[in-house]
Amino acid sequence: MKNNSKKSFVRTLSLKPPSLSDNTADVDRLVHSLKNEIKTDHLIMDFDMIQSLPHLIRQWDYQLDCILYRDGTRWGIAGIKGTDDPSPVCGIAVDLGTTRVVMQIVDLVSGQTLGQIAFDNPQIRIGPDILARIHHTDTDQGLNHLNRAIINGINENIEKLGRSCGIKPENIYLMTLAGNTAMTHLFLGLDPHWIIREPYIPVINRPGTIEAETLGVKINPHARIFTFPNIGSYFGGDLIAGILYSGMDNSDETAILVDVGTNAEVVLGNSQWLIACAGAAGPALEGGVTRMGMMAGPGVIDKVTIDPATRNLSIRTIENHDPKGICGSGLIDLAAQLFIAQMLDIRGQLLPSACGRRFKKKDGVGYFVVVDKNESATGEELTISQVDLDSLVRSKAAMYTILETITSTVGIQLDELETFYIAGTFGSFIDPKSAISIGMIPDLPLSCYDAIGNSSLGGAAMALTDSECQRKIDMIRDRITYIELNVNQELMNRFSAAKFLPHTDISRFPSVKI
């Protein structure tokens, strides 16, 4: 191993052996060399590592690799090994989602991703959403139940992921974790009680770097875990990781980042300033608006096309399995295609005569049949109801309203944006043209849209390979101004105007032709 990159957490040292003319203590010899290497006055070393050092450095002939970590301005040693030791030196990045957890093992020397795993958040069994989980913490041992559920889930999947790529838990020296404020609290075992109660105060905003052993995470005994900071109760480390990953904080041009999950979370800004907000536009856009809605996966409809002339419908499913449901991107495609084919009016109402045999009515509610029962994986019709479409229209209106409100706050028009980052699983599948057609996002050139995938995981992985990231993360956090949408007087007026397809002001969407 040889990596003395100024940004790497792994540094190779060649120590000068002691002599009668140089009787510097073993620990002082190592610490002095490392301080010079990383240019710091603060260096932490665990006592049991100090105890073993004299024997080890002589065994290694004073040639060793040091695995470092940062805690603010302080540095520490997470591990030491001989330069001839071929065992890997790895870190693990974690995107701690409310519904889904994704982890990635990274080689700390090469920066290469060695493997990735995703699993359902085991806390779902205790509470399906954040609110239910926080209320559960008020019960006897409730916080402990939730904390152990996620720690055990992470430990099991670290072992599973490690087996798949030949990495043992003791080969993992660093972990970076990004999640929303509540999920971070539950991972750390901190009481989230006051997060959802006025005046909405978290226990801590900057958890910093903590011993893995203290948290019960089964990796190297000396390993450290860096948890991305949050800004209050409603803007978490996952968004800060997303900003870091997008690079918008380094750019002179003003860009916008949208991450759709439980909420639609939006950040606008550049290298000089950042402004953020969040609003309830998420669940419908994730696919939770309809009975057939579900997260993206095999057999889930992610693309819909309708021939405007014949009104014949075609679908595409993930991995080409028989259709069993529809995800957010497929839902937006469906609404856009229905609207363009004039099977849906500007209010989002189904037009029975245009929908033909696909239109059905049950208990006074109109339904559109997307997949016949003999073609679906479930053996039942896959349908979308008028109630579902009404919910989608409200969600798309909320999304557009959030975007319009945050840009107008700083005197920017939506059509002035040059880069529009779309994050998350939703962003990976969405067709911007369809989202524009229903008025969910602004009518910008398609080249402006950049789907950056799981930016929370991407930012967490970046923090493993670049020791300067912690400084950047603090700079990002300190630069963000969070605005509360609930007190914005113009919000409801904008929302009402956006509850039409694509908008009451059609001039905002010149590319939409019906």
Report a brief summary of the structure:
The protein has 514 residues and is an alpha/beta fold.
Rg, rounded, reads 26 Å
- Low-pLDDT runs of 5+ residues are 282-289
Secondary structure tally, helices:
16
Query: What is the multimeric organization of the chains shown?
Result: single chain
**How many distinct domains?**
3
Distance between the termini: 62 Å
Sheet with the most strands, sense and barrel status: 6 strands, mixed
- Give the overall form: elongated
Give the secondary structure arrangement, pairings included.
Layout: E1 10-14, H1 26-38, E2 43-44, H2 47-59, E3 63-71, E4 74-82, E5 90-96, E6 100-107, E7 113-120, H3 130-136, H4 142-165, E8 172-179, H5 181-188, E9 208-211, H6 212-215, E10 224-227, H7 237-246, E11 255-260, E12 264-269, E13 274-279, H8 282-288, E14 300-306, E15 313-317, E16 325-326, H9 328-340, H10 352-355, E17 359-362, E18 365-371, E19 382-385, H11 386-409, E20 419-423, H12 424-429, H13 432-437, E21 449-453, H14 455-465, H15 469-479, E22 480-482, H16 491-497
Parallel strand pairs: 2-4, 5-8, 8-10, 11-20, 13-22, 14-16, 20-21
Antiparallel strand pairs: 1-3, 3-4, 5-6, 6-7, 9-10, 11-12, 12-13, 14-15, 17-18, 18-19
Helix pairs in contact: 7-14, 7-15, 8-9, 8-11, 11-16
